[in-house]
Amino acid sequence: MALITDERGGVLVDAGHSPGHAREIRGALVAAGLPEPRWLVYTHHHWDHVWGACAWPGVEIVGHVAGEAPLRAEAARPWSHRYLREQVRAEPRLGPSFRARALAMDSWDDFAVLPPTRTFTDELELPTGVRLRHVGGRHAPDSTVVLVPDSAVMLLGDCFYPPPVHLRQDGDGPDLALVHRLLDDGYQWYVSSHADPMTLDEARAAVEG
């Protein structure tokens, strides 16, 4: 997750993995004196990036059009701990993902999966100057990177990660070629969702080494 904010408004990148997680982040924003975000951007539709959305009232949710149908299908499922157990029994490869979901959720009261309220296809610039660029990839077809030109930061989401565990095949690994295509002298920091930030030089060394 990331928050980009200035006098034009705040952009939240990804929603958190649960409503409880989202409420913790909201509390931290209040404690830091930061405003509530006006926009919530999904880097892609996977649960650990979107399940907190229902705890961010009043935001416009922005995501790539390819993520809309999967999220509508997810929204229709009867989510509960019992349902998660049933799904894992039927398809054991779902175990890592669905067990993580069970641990993230302490209550299903008022929980809802929210599809984007605004979609885009290739690129979109928000009123704050934050830019969204669809890159796709094997991890998720709707993978989107978030460009913050004023700060020379590129938020990569999970775009270069392998497919989720239940879809992964032998030989699947990080898509370093995708990262290589994204490297740009105008961006000095590269931040993925589950790793430490890297400078441009560090990112180049990682993909070329």
Automatic annotation (TrEMBL):
Signal peptide: none annotated. It comes from the Bacteria. Pfam families: Lactamase_B. Residues 1-194 form the Metallo-beta-lactamase domain. InterPro entries: Metallo-B-lactamas (IPR001279), NDM-1-like (IPR050855), RibonucZ/Hydroxyglut_hydro (IPR036866). SUPFAM superfamilies: Metallo-hydrolase/oxidoreductase (SSF56281). PANTHER family: ACYL-COENZYME A THIOESTERASE MBLAC2, METALLO-BETA-LACTAMASE DOMAIN-CONTAINING. This is Metallo-beta-lactamase superfamily protein. It comes from Micromonospora palomenae.
